[in-house]
Design goal:
The chain has 361 residues and is α+β, with helices and mostly antiparallel strands. The chain contains seven helices and 18 strands. Strand 17 and strand 18 form a beta hairpin.
């Protein structure tokens, strides 16, 4: 099992490496009759593509998507949706000098331990480049979720240790950090300049919210909605922690403070993050994600060679200063894929809809 597939009913399988011909995937289980075209998916891909924003790599990729199957006359057919995105600006020569050295913080050592062989050109399958396929698949899931009234939002709420305030949903789409708070942007930009001059990198926190999620999504015990969300988000490279609702803050509260009281008008608070006993409560589903600093840095680090000799490394080439904000649409995509899958699973369990049927039937 290579771990290249995700989901049970709304299912995606991806392929491709950072320095190969391209990347792509197949989405299965998407109901027929949903309006979908390349422009809709491209909008999400453009938020993720390299070369945008002060923290981004200088690698230039258009990330133009080609839908190969599953869409006819602008609507999904219910069959497998195949797509492909070409690599256009990969420079494998940037990695020739470190092909026999394990980069700290990367998957070089562990890929060798598992497979006995690895693609050293940008990390191959472990590269952040593979997330372009996730975003494309997540965009399809997002279109389906809108059809059933669910709205998914993602934004950066902390960068380099400096928190953002929440001012406006509209601001998220107006700046390169995907921040709801425009006043914090100058401070974040100064952090980037300082990290660049020091040959270092930065991390941050991304918040995800899904509005109008109906009560009842999620399966008891081993397939809880929050468990599936955490699994999906932790599967993204650079993610080192996931919180649902009040998260780790819940450990610092009393039960009387953390419990969400219920009145005839509904819940008084949402410390649960919209999930109780692993099943959605009808409130907004909330998650936060801790994103580690990019491990490819210019500062000298200690490591070993593939033969076990101690050495030092300073990583050149074109790399992001931070995974934020390009990771924001990636996390949104995985969040959306979980919700689409669990929505279809819930409806099929209740006998409301056959996942293979058209929503228009």
């Amino acid at each position: 099992m290579s771990g290249d597939s995700f989901g049970r009913i709304f299912r995606v399988t991806t392929f491709g490496e950072s320095h190969g011909p391209g990347l792509g995937g197949v989405v299965e289980g998407c109901p027929a009759g949903i309006a979908l075209n390349e422009e809709i998916i491209q909008e999400e891909l453009d938020r993720r593509k390299p070369g945008k924003g002060p923290a981004s790599t200088k690698r230039k990729e258009s990330d133009r998507i080609r839908i190969l199957s599953g869409v006819f006359e602008g609507r999904t057919t219910g069959t497998a949706i195949g797509f492909f995105i070409a690599n256009e600006d990969h420079r494998s020569r940037d990695y020739s000098g470190i092909k026999n050295i394990y980069r700290p913080g990367h998957g070089d050592f562990t890929y060798d331990a598992k497979y006995g062989v690895r693609d050293y050109r940008g990390g191959g399958r472990s590269s952040g480049r593979e997330t372009v396929s996730r975003v494309a698949a997540g965009a399809v899931a997002g279109v389906f979720l809108k059809e059933v009234g669910i709205d998914v939002l993602a934004c950066t709420v902390e960068f380099g240790g400096i928190k953002a305030g929440y001012q406006s949903r509209e601001e998220i789409f107006k700046n390169s950090f995907a921040s709801p708070d425009p006043e914090v942007l100058p401070r974040w930009e100064k952090l980037i300049q300082k990290a660049k001059s020091n040959g270092d990198s930065l991390g941050g926190i991304v918040e995800l919210a899904a509005y109008n999620v109906p009560a009842g999504l999620g399966e008891p015990v081993f397939d809880k909605l929050d468990a599936r969300i955490a699994y999906a988000l932790m599967g993204v490279g650079a993610v080192k922690g996931v919180e649902i609702g009040s998260g780790f803050q819940a450990a610092r509260l009393k039960g009387s403070e953390n419990n969400d009281w219920i009145t005839r008008k509904g819940f008084v608070s949402n410390n649960s993050g919209g999930i109780l006993a692993g099943i959605s409560s009808g409130q907004t589903v909330m998650a936060r994600v801790a994103v580690k600093p990019i491990p490819s840095i210019a500062r000298t680090q200690k490591t070993i060679t593939t033969q076990g000799s101690e050495t030092e490394i300073s990583i050149g080439g074109r790399h992001d200063i931070s995974a934020i904000p390009r990771i924001v649409p990636v996390l949104k995509a995985m969040f959306s894929l979980v919700l689409a899958d669990m929505y279809l699973l819930h409806r099929s369990r209740k006998g409301i809809i056959d996942p293979e049927e058209s929503l228009n039937d």
